[in-house]
Amino acid sequence: MLHLSATAAAVLGAILALWLGAAAWALATGLKLRRSAGEAEQQRARLEALIAGAPAIVVLVHHDDSIEASARLADWLGLDSAPERLGGLSAGGRGLAPGEFDALQEDIRLAQSTGKAISRTVRPQQSNRTLTVRGGPAPPGVTRPGAAILFFFDSTETRSEMARLAEEANRLAKAFDALSGLIEASPIPMWHRGPDLRLTLVNSAYVQAVEAENAADVIGRGVELVEAAPGRNPIAAAAAARATGKPSSRVLPATVGGERRSLMLVDVPLGDAGVAGYAIDVEELEQARAAFKRFAEAQRDLLDRLSAGVAQFEADRSLSFYNQAFMRLFAMKPEWLSEGPEFDRVLERMRETGRLPEARDFRAWRDERRSWFTAADEGQEEAWILPGGDHLRVVAQPLPDGGLLLIFEDRTEQVALATARDTLLRVRAATFDNLFEAVGVFAADGRLQLWNQKFREVWDLEETFLSAHPRVDQLAEAAGRQLANPSRAAVIRELVRVATQERKQRNGRVALKSGRHFEFAAVPLPDGNALFTMLDISDSRRIEAALRERNEALEDADRVKTAFVANMSYELRTPLTSIGGFAEMLAGGYAGELAPTADEYVRAILDSVARLSTLIDHVLDLTQSEAGALPLEKRAVDIRRIAREAAKGVGDAIAEKSIELEVTLEKSMGNIHGDARRLRQVLDNLLNNAVRFTPKRGRILLLGDGDPDNVRLVISDNGPGMTLKEQARAFDRFSRSSAEGGRGSSLGLGLPLARQFVEAHGGSLSLLSEPGQGTAVTVELPRK
Question: Domain Histidine kinase spans what residues (predicted)?
Answer without folding.
Answer: 567-784
